[in-house]
Amino acid sequence: MARRIPVLVQSERLEQSSRWRLVEMLYEQHRAMLEGSLAQALLEGICAHITGSAVYLVLIGITAVVTSGRYALTLQFRRRAAGLQGARAGSPEGWAWRFVIGNCVTSAVFCLNTIYTCFAFRDASLKLLVILVQGAWLAGSTQRNAPSPAAVLAQTALISTDTVIGAAFGGSPILYWLIPFVLAHAASARGGVAFFGDLHLSTLLNEQRLRAANVLLTQQSATDGLTGIGNRRAFDTVLAKEVRRASRNADSLALIMIDVDYFKAYNDRYGHSAGDDCLRRVAAFIEGAVRRPPDFAARFGGEEFCVLLPSTQLDGARNVAETIRAAINAARIPHASSPIGHVTVSLGVSCLIPPPGFNEADLVGMADLALYRAKETGRNTVCDAAPSGRDSLKANNPLP
After folding, report:
1. Mean pLDDT computed over 380-396
2. Fewer CB within 10 Å of terminal CB in the chain, N or C?
3. CB contact set of 214 (below 8 Å; sequence gap of 6+)
4. Where does a domain end: 175, 192, 217?
């Protein structure tokens, strides 16, 4: 069974975005398409002037209609690609097939011109002019259409066939010498498709690897190397963005500051390796309590963590904080140097609707003040701060 010619260069490693990029390469040549159509219309005009045949005028009209249709298709693709009519509809292969059909229709117009010229007139120079212009157009389009093997091979088959027929039976011996060259070009078309296709494929795969490396680098630069959650740099960026959003939308924004109780004593007793493991476990409990996509957990520094909760009221933030406190308390991670006997955390909560020009550092300061109060009242506690920055003195101290 013959192998099916793909409409796009194929590779199992090509991502969907890269396949769309191949289609964009096809539709980006609208300028070359217009120039080729203009050259075709000019050639038909010259033939009409030399021969006086009205058939060429009809061919000019057909060329204009086909060119307009292909250009309209290009504009439609570009509008969809830019999102001006919603999400880009269809598949890359579907849009590639539309291009192939338009390309074949254009090639058919060239074929009509060649066949009519070769069989209707005796002037060998006119026939030679038409065939040479058509061959130049075909040769120039192979590289441009390489993202679509089906487009190149279908176009080559159409134009080569009619050129050979016209040269062989057009009654002009001088044209016989063109037949070997046309056949050689047709035979080399598949090789040209493979060469330029591999070139495009290599470029796209390199772009994919570069994008993946950039994503990994971005993730690494925003991730705390010890705990795997966000780092201070990422927290500062997200906090500034969320403060602007909340201020613009008059929406509430809550922040929880979390500190591991007696952590220095833990390190002194169990060693820094055990301390690192303890911080990783605490981070896992914090991350487990942050369930909504916009919520953001990060390591603030040392044994201190933070959780940013957009569109969250004070009661909701206190519930999240209490969930974190209870989970770590229930884990009973041994801590012989703590009066409680196991690892616990203290938490401070701040919440407000940021006014215009609000400084995000003030939200952190409010949560820090509440955290300080939680430590003052016995640790393993959740306290919150009033929007004014004064502690509301609401505290919960469920010591075991």
Report:
1. 59
2. N
3. none
4. 217
3-state SS assignment for residue 55: helix
Give dist(CA 116, CA 294) in Å, integer: 67
Q: 61-88: per-residue pLDDT in tens?
A: 998 898 899 888 888 888 776 654 444 5
Q: What is the mean pLDDT of residues 260-270?
A: 95
Instruction: Give CA–CA dist 181/164, Å, rounded.
Output: 10
C-beta of residue 322 within 8 angstroms of C-beta of residue 383: no
| Integer angstrom CA distances of residue 41 from 46, 79, 128, 135 | 9, 28, 17, 16
Strand positions, DSSP E, 13-113: none
List pLDDT tens digits, range 360-372.
999 999 999 999 9
Residue that is written with structure tokens 């390469």 in the block? 25
Per-residue pLDDT tens over the stretch 236-258: 999 999 999 999 999 999 999 99
Question: How many C-alpha atoms does 38 have within 13 Å on its Cβ side?
Answer: 7
Same domain membership, residue 236 and residue 186: no
Q: Is residue 222 part of a domain?
A: no
Which pair of structure tokens corresponds to residue 284? 């896992």
Q: What's the CA gap between 56 and 348, in Å, rounded?
A: 84
138-152, 314-328, 384-398: the lowest-pLDDT one: 384-398
Residues in the chain: 400
Domain boundary among 194, 217, 240: 217
321 Ramachandran zone, left/alpha/beta (phi>0; psi -120 to 50): alpha
pLDDT of residue 82: 62
In this structure, the answer to whether residues 181 and 317 fall within a common structural domain is no
Neighbours of 310 (CB within 10 A): 20
Q: What is the Cα 232 distance to its own chain's centre?
A: 27
Question: pLDDT band at residue 118, thresholds of 50, 70 and 90?
Answer: confident
Instruction: Note whether 314 and 253 are within 8 A (CB).
Output: no
**319-343 b/e (C-beta count within 10 Å ≥ 16 → b):** ebbbbbbebbbeeebebeebebebb
Residue 290's φ and ψ, nearest 5 degrees, are -100, 100
Residue 102 CB neighbours (<10 A): 21
Pair of tokens at residue 158: 């159409």
Q: Would you list the DSSP string of 255-275? A: EEEEEETTHHHHHHHH-HHHH
